[in-house]
Specification:
The complex is a heterodimer.
Chain A lengths: L4 E7 L2 E10 L4 H13 L4 E12 L1 H16 L3 E5 L3 H9 L7 E3 L2 H9 L11 E2 L2
Parallel strand pairs in A: 2-3, 3-4, 4-5
Antiparallel strand pairs in A: 1-2, 1-6
Helix pairs in contact in A: 1-2
Chain B lengths: L5 E6 L5 H15 L3 H22 L7 E9 L2 E8 L14 H6 L7 H8 L2 E7 L2 E9 L8
Antiparallel strand pairs in B: 1-2, 2-3, 3-5, 4-5
Classes of the chains: A alpha/beta, B alpha+beta.
């Protein structure tokens, strides 16, 4: 019954995770595995793209929390882009914007990693999830 | 919504949470909640059911979680019941959200979320049954009334 999926792309040295569907206590393991794959492979600059991401529960928030320090210690971060209002509300209610860089667009998130405000339309090669 | 309750019983599996959310969305729409109110209630019920499955039944799939919705005047009340390990809120001090965040903890956000999403939260344990009752007020504008 799960309608959640994660796919991977790279834009230069930034790994973009496209989340689709509903992230809850059932699907959180899939997201956890995706973030684990990133950090294991040394991809610590991570953008979570949320334009097709429809739902998050506390289990999903816990996964973000479990990996953010690892990503930062590895010289990167987990930045979050393009959230739908319903998903942003959950982050906001718990004060997560204090801990995470949450921006409007994927381009803005990638640019923040690159220390530039320009649109970075670099390599968009896709990897299978 | 008719004043007789809507009911749904699910096996204690997290794969059933999406089914609960769909049902709550339907009940909330029928009760005249706005989409924002419905989303908040959906998430709160999801959290309560996830707690029942993971803590009440310890993840074992052979339990049952009962969800019931009743419309009372301008509020929709959803009750989540399970028959696993009783939950006594007096035994579970809610850790400060700032502490949980600063410690980068993976768990402990669900109850905070429930309290922020609905207007009233009541816990009750009796014998082998534990329940949490979630009340969401409708603002009366969803159907233009």
């Amino acid at each position: 019954m799960s309608n959640f999926s994660v796919s991977f792309r790279h834009r230069g040295d930034v790994c973009v995770l496209d989340l689709t569907g509903e992230l809850d206590a059932h699907t959180a393991a899939e997201f956890e595995a995706a973030l684990q794959k990133c950090v294991t492979e040394g991809d610590c600059k991570i953008v979570v793209q949320g334009k097709d991401w429809q739902y998050i529960s506390s289990a999903g928030l816990g996964v973000f929390m479990a990996f953010v320090e690892t990503a930062r210690e590895g010289g990167g971060d987990i930045k979050i882009a393009g959230l739908q209002p319903r998903v942003f509300t959950v982050f906001d209610l718990l004060g997560f914007p204090l801990l995470f860089d949450i921006v409007e667009t994927e381009d803005e998130a990638v640019a923040r990693f690159n220390g530039t405000s320009e649109n970075t339309s670099a390599d968009t090669s896709e990897d299978p999830a | 919504m008719a004043r007789c309750p809507h009911k749904l019983s699910i096996p204690s599996r997290t794969s059933q949470l999406a089914r609960v959310r769909r049902a709550v969305a339907s009940w909330a729409a029928e009760a005249g909640l706005s989409s924002e109110e419905a989303s908040a209630l959906q998430c709160a019920v999801d959290e309560a059911c996830a707690n029942a499955i993971e803590h009440g039944y310890g993840g074992k799939p052979n339990g049952t979680v009962d969800v019931e919705a009743k419309l009372k005047a301008d509020v929709l009340v959803v009750t989540v019941r399970h028959h696993g390990k009783p939950f006594d809120p007096k035994q579970h001090q809610l850790a400060a959200l700032t502490d949980i965040r600063s410690q980068r903890r993976k768990h402990g956000y669900g109850l905070h979320l429930i309290h922020k999403l609905v207007d009233d939260v009541r816990f009750k344990a009796s014998g082998h049954t534990s329940e949490v009752r979630l009340t969401k007020r409708r603002d009366g504008t969803a159907n233009g009334d």
